[in-house]
Amino acid sequence: MKVGVAISTFNSDQEVIDLISKIFDEHWPIAGIIVIDSLGGVAIPEHIALNDIQNVDYYNFDYNLGSAGNLHNRLLYASRKEWDFVLALNHDALVNKSTFLAQLENCSLPNLGALYPLKYFPEKGFYDYSGTREVGPWRAFGSTSKPEKNLIEHIWSSSNGALYSLEPVRRGILPNKDLWFGWDDYLYGLDLKKNGYDQLVVTNAICEDNYEFEARKLGPLNLKLSVKPAWYHYYRTRNLWWIACYKHPSLIRLLRVILRMLGETISIFLGWEKENKFLALRYQLTGMMHGILNKMGKWKVPE
Is the pTM for the entire model greater than 0.90? Predict the structure, then answer.
């Protein structure tokens, strides 16, 4: 069995250089590395050449791929290698060698689409079980205790740290780059499930996710919520509507999206957004309209 690593980067040259060095210094059992960059400079390829690093292929695109386009190309380029699996990593890789080895122990299972690490959020004090359910109005991730089971069935999970089988990719099942940003891993999980591939979280493969949470007071509640630029609301809303309307249409899925959007709208009003409340609401409404109208791609300023 051959396993490779595919790294995503955008304006993160030093982090990628450090990650490549770490993987080789620690002797991870891999066949090679692919790096997919957007609008990249010369630092990464120069580092590879100057240090005569073998089995690292660097691909730089002259436009911004977005997270969806990057994941699409990482899996596509990996499928052209003689690899059976590929570990997808962002520049801020969540997994370490021991996490990766715990995932590898389960690669012989049949009908595998992906093996995910079990993420722990130290800021919130619990484990990420969000992928055991479809995206919906709920915002909690899971339990404060680690499960006893070694494997948990999943519907989807973040691509950062996911060990993907390349069999589905070679069958033409790829992340949809039309999403451009956000929920590409959710849609790919739905596609894998629809085509009969299993996705599992390996609970012994634990990694900490220091996600950007900040304390927010929403009415009487004190919560820790993800704090992102206002334009995130556009993509997170648009892509979910598009998935529910066009890629995996169902009334139940659409209802979940409606309830989620309603919950986020209320949260924005109550203080999730401190400085860009009305801009965030406009982006959210525009995202819903574009998703319904099948208007996809990158929109620097959604209109």
Answer: yes
